[in-house]
Write a structure and sequence with these properties.
This protein is of the alpha+beta class. 27% of the residues lie in helices and 25% in strands. The protein folds into 3 domains: 152 residues, Aldehyde Oxidoreductase, domain 4, CATH 3.30.365.10; 148 residues, Aldehyde oxidase/xanthine dehydrogenase, a/b hammerhead (Aldehyde Oxidoreductase, domain 3, Alpha-Beta Complex); 321 residues, 2-Layer Sandwich (Aldehyde Oxidoreductase, domain 4). A 7-stranded mixed β-sheet has the order 3-5-1-12-9-10-11, with helices on both faces. Strands 7-16-15-14-8 form a 5-stranded mixed β-sheet. The longest helix is centred in the C-terminal third of the chain and has 28 residues.
């Protein structure tokens, strides 16, 4: 079949589920109610570190309506890793459904199931718990000291150490004309999903467990549940209903084990939904981190080597931390001949850190891009030119996984920098002498990033099934979990393009482990690239079968047929044609009685990085320290925009999250108890509509040869370079560099005072 102009891919369509969401017809987990459903509630620790000496539930007998109570004494004691990582190498299985030891303020102690929410709430307050208090540690550098309390038994200094090196770092420093050093501090922030975490578990008469809920990884959840509940996977079904945001916080096992145990004990469906306060300490946060750079560079701006030290605060359990810090070491858009990294994953008595849009990249990119700007200024090189000089190029080794021999087939970083600079008017805004004595100061900044389009630790994979209906429409079965980002729409467009259908002809059935084929889950910006490739191949499989039957029906050769606009026709005679429905009916009800079913499994042979350059203009009030973001121009190498409108929406949303990360958002903990102090939207300051600057996305299409129609990932990359571009703009405005996030008015005023 000859290639033709794309008719569906590359066009902007509204989300196929958007109208139902906007009109309130979409049913989320929190909206669901099953017959005879009970309500669960979790009792949480009031201490940051303690042994449970005794749990007395006798008072619950006097409370009508309590159907079950569980704790570490009456549930399976099977260790697991909530991220689903294997129990070898750098990860650890250090969590239990319930443990006799609690490790942070808010850790799980017990749970109840009752006939209504009020009874469940009352019940947990009737459980008497006797604790033996233990010393706690909250600062990761303090936790590394030999005398620090041990958060996890057998971990020595509470640390998992991960080294990585390329070349000879000492040689890199010897070849340098100058060496620069900096230290940056990143803070804890929350995903702030609109829908609170919620799960419902139900058990049928055969003993099969079904779990509905806010998960990004249905297949991983089923696998972990099978291990910890000691149930065969055939007895577990995980379904992801529509979900109100994820951003990584639903990329691990949450309270599925608790709600499942309550359902298994009562034989009734049970729902547990977090309160907004619980969300802040019971779901994962972005890793706080301390990152130090020591960089060698020649006077012409050529980087010769750098040493990077990362101290990541894991919180109380391992979770994602070892893999996260390992992968962030590879997300570097520049050529560095000599690199040495040392990463320390540190246990503390704080809530779990985990995946959050960017998976470590926002932290390392903030440090790297601010550090690079300082070097450029010292060498009197334009910040854009130092980045262009050192950028990766097509044909270079793909740093995301050197061991697999991947190379870069596309790289639009320079195009991003040049296009962004033109639209932003970089040279004009950078020129002229700064008047830093004025009350209102303006500055501009730039930052770059590269991310990924799938897993980095191994080849990623996904599968899809295309089922043709008698009227020519199609059911697409995929386990790619749409979290609101529009992946269902993108998958429908890919299938429609291949099959010559309209988007509305594609019904997407997603994320049900009993129905849809295997997929790794929604993370690592992998849906468009990995799941999209599986969908494209499944659609091509179905298309080949359609064309074969149509050729027989039309007495034509297969290679002489084309498929478009719901028809299969002869290329030189478009009036000689059949509708897809006619072909499907002939296949199913003719002499062959054959059902056309397309299927495919895609195993990635590369991981093409998306690249971006973000330009920001800020206004700083020198009297109050207030920072206002005025304008953001962000150019992204997306390979191919399957849906330009949704792609631009991803960029706009990521920029908004990045502004919060840079300026206003931060979780605060009590220094003595580790209790979360601002677990609500009154005290935790996310940006609002009035904080939204002018945002100008630029889509750079490099058409990666391994992507579906040339596409790469974009979901996470939109956020990553925002904070460093803001930080560099603030420095440009006030002449003082803030090296910790968030950049608050207090920090700016203190820095100005120190400067005098």
């Amino acid at each position: 079949m000859e290639e033709r102009e794309l008719l569906v891919v590359g066009q902007s369509f509204s989300k196929i589920d958007g109208l139902n969401m906007a009109t309130g017809k979409t049913l989320y987990t929190a909206d669901m109610k099953l017959p005879r459903m009970l309500y669960g509630k979790i009792l949480r620790s009031p201490h940051p570190h303690a042994l449970i000496k005794r749990i007395d539930t006798s008072k619950l007998k006097r409370l009508s309506g309590v159907k079950a109570v569980i704790n570490y004494e009456n549930v399976p004691r099977v260790p697991y890793n909530s991220a689903g990582l294997p129990s070898y190498g750098i990860s650890r299985h250090d969590e239990y459904i319930f443990d006799q030891k609690v490790r942070f303020h808010g850790d799980r102690v017990a749970a109840v199931a009752a006939v209504d929410k009020d009874t469940a709430e009352e019940a947990i307050h009737l459980i008497d718990v006797e604790y033996e208090l233990l010393d706690a540690v909250f600062d990761p550098e303090e936790a590394l000291r030999p005398e620090a309390p041990e958060v996890q038994t057998g971990t020595g200094k509470n640390v998992i150490y991960i080294p990585y090196a390329v070349g000879d770092i000492e040689k890199g420093f010897q070849e340098a004309d100058d060496v620069f050093e900096d230290r940056y501090v990143m803070h804890p922030v929350h995903t702030c999903c609109m829908e609170p975490t919620a799960f419902i578990a139900d058990v049928d008469s055969s003993g099969k467990l079904t779990v509905y809920g806010t998960t990004q990884v249905p297949n991983h959840s089923r696998r972990i549940l099978s291990q910890i509940l000691k149930l065969p996977m055939s007895k577990i079904r995980v379904v992801k209903p529509p979900i109100g945001g994820g951003f990584g916080s639903r990329q691990n096992l949450q309270h599925e084990g608790v709600v499942a145990m309550l359902a298994l004990k009562t034989g009734l469906p049970v729902k547990i939904e977090y309160s907004r306060e619980e969300e802040f300490f019971a779901s994962t946060i972005r890793h706080p981190a301390i990152i130090s750079f020591r960089t060698g560079i020649k006077r012409d701006g050529t980087l010769t080597g750098w040493y990077v030290k990362v101290i990541a605060n894991a919180g109380a359990y391992t979770g994602h931390t070892p893999v996260l810090v390992q992968t962030l070491l590879h997300k570097n858009p520049y050529r560095i001949p000599h690199e040495k990294y040392e990463a320390y994953c540190v246990y503390t008595n704080l809530p779990n850190s985990g995946a959050f849009r960017g998976y470590g990249n926002p932290q390392i990119s903030f440090a790297r891009e601010c550090h690079l700007d300082r070097i450029a200024e010292a060498l009197k090189i334009d910040p854009i030119e130092i980045r262009v000089k050192n950028k990766l190029r097509v044909g270079d080794v793909n740093p995301l996984n050197r061991s697999m021999g991947w190379t870069l087939d596309s790289c639009g970083l320079e195009e991003c920098l040049r296009a962004g600079a033109r639209q932003f008017e970089w040279e004009k805004k950078r020129s002229g002498r700064k008047n830093r004595s004025a009350e209102i100061l303006r500055g501009v900044g730039v930052a770059c990033m590269m991310h990924l389009s799938g897993q980095t630790m191994s080849a990623d994979c996904s599968s899809a099934i295309i089922k043709l209906n008698e009227d020519g429409t199609t059911a697409l079965l995929t386990s790619a979990a749409d979290l609101g980002q529009g992946s269902n729409t993108a998958m429908a467009q890919i299938a429609a393009e291949v099959l010559g259908l309209k988007v509305e002809d594609i019904v997407v059935m997603a994320s049900d482990t009993d129905i849809t084929p295997f997929d790794m889950g929604t993370y690592a910006s992998r849906q468009t690239y990995v799941s999209g490739n599986a969908v494209k191949r499944a659609a091509e499989d179905a298309k080949a079968q359609l064309v074969k039957y149509a050729a027989t029906m039309l007495s034509e050769k297969e290679e002489d047929l084309e498929i478009a606009d719901r028809w299969i026709y002869v290329k030189d005679n478009s009036q000689k044609r059949l509708s897809l429905g006619e072909v499907v009916n002939e296949a199913q009800y003719g002499k062959d009685r054959y059902h056309i079913l397309g299927k495919a499994t895609f195993k990635a042979s590369n991981n093409p990085p998306p690249f971006a350059a973000t330009f920001t203009e800020v206004e700083v009030n020198r009297e109050t320290g207030t920072v206002k973001v005025l304008r953001v121009v962000s150019a992204h190498d997306v390979g191919k925009a399957i849906n330009p409108k949704l792609t631009e929406g991803q960029i706009e949303g990521g920029i908004f999250q990045g502004i919060g990360y840079a300026l206003t958002e931060e979780i605060h903990y009590d220094s003595k108890t580790g209790r979360t102090l601002n677990a609500d939207f009154f005290d935790y300051k996310i940006p609002c509509s009035q904080d939204m600057p002018v945002i100008e996305p630029i889509l750079i299409e490099t058409l990666d040869p391994t992507g579906p129609f040339g596409a790469k990932g974009v979901g996470e990359s939109s956020l990553i370079s925002v904070a460093p571009s803001i930080a560099n703009a603030v420095y440009d405005a006030i002449g003082v560099r803030i090296k910790s996030l968030p950049i608050t008015g207090e920090k700016i005023l203190e820095a100005l005072r120190e400067k005098g």
